[in-house]
Design a protein that fits this description.
Blueprint lengths: L5 E8 L1 H5 L3 H9 L5 E8 L3 H16 L3 H15 L9 E9 L1 H9 L2 H4 L12 H5 L1 E4 L6 E5 L2 E2 L4 H16 L16 E8 L10 H9 L5 E8 L3 H7 L1 H27 L8 H25 L17 E9 L1 H9 L12 H5 L8 E3 L3 H10 L7 H11 L4
Antiparallel strand pairs: 1-3, 1-6, 2-3, 4-5, 7-9, 7-10, 8-9
Length: 398
Amino acid sequence: MSKTKDELSYILITPYTILKSRTGGVLARLLATPDIELVAAQMIAPTQDLTNEYAEGLKETVGKRNSEAAQWFYDYIIRAFSPTDGRRHRVLMLIFRGENVTKKLFSIAGDITTSTNSSSELITGEKIRDTYADLVISPSTGRVRYFEPAVLTPPDQKYALPRLKMFAAFAAEESNLVENMAYENPEKIERTLVIIKPDNWLYPSAKPGSIIDMFSRTGLRIIGCKVYQMSLEEALEFYGPVKDVLREKLAPIIAQKAKKIIENEFNIKIDDVHIPSITECIGKTYSDNEFCKIVEFMTGKRPDEEYSPDFENKTKCMILIYEGENAVKKIRTVLGPTDPTKAPGGTIRREFGTNIMINTAHASDSPENAQREMNIVKIGKNNLSDIVNGYLKTKGML
């Protein structure tokens, strides 16, 4: 796509859509769309001030096309986004880039005023709102009985730019983790980290959304989200324990295989006394190379090679933080074993994984490791506001 014509725009997944675990389904529709790219994502929890400002702007914009619908949207934002008894609600903000991306997102979302009347036999399911939104109007009074738009997105860049500025300013001051729940048994609550790996982002695909949809069966809450490019330094620290495991478990196996190959090739007998030397020379070399391949898969760089300063990292992943009782076990059960070929049917790795390397997603194996991994990837921070502000500067908005 032509970078000179690229726009940035946003789409918001509403609190109810998140609450009903429809986030993955919505994302699947968006991410399978050609010629638009997800560049940032952040879970936010609007304050009353942000809610009021957004509702007023939305009412003004929609009102230019449909004054009745404008009131629906205004009432909806005030009801759904306003904090309840001081507890703020989760909204997932997604930033997309592409040529005419604002109009494309608006088209993918669909027109709530024409496509979601529940009495219609003509709904096709083509748009997001066809599937996930509701607009119920009383036949007798003509008044709206129920309204849930599922997603919210601007119709054009003129409206998008000031809203992008507003949300970016808010997101910059917020933590990347939404802590809005008071649990009855807080001692039972765990947090775990999930990475939807780079193999899911090579081309437009519904896979990342489908993976999140499968994780939703755990009943856990997503409290943090960001699109991320892992640095070489972060990967070395993140996967450091894996290097030791590979050396411990894989190197001896490779040494035995190497011994047999050499014996067969040269028709000689190698005494077992030499196995430690073969393990050190060949086994560890092999396992270290496997470790380098893991780092390269996640970052685009091998740690044992030099790169020019203008090297462009094209790998991308999505990091999600799930919260709830037994979060670690629940997520890993749905994810499945490391080797997709040995994973049970119905697990994410069996459905989407290829091999031990390309196994579609990572999940922390303990609450302690989850915290360690969250620290490495700086989960409390999100670059959404930086990306948006950089775009706004090109538009003279900052």
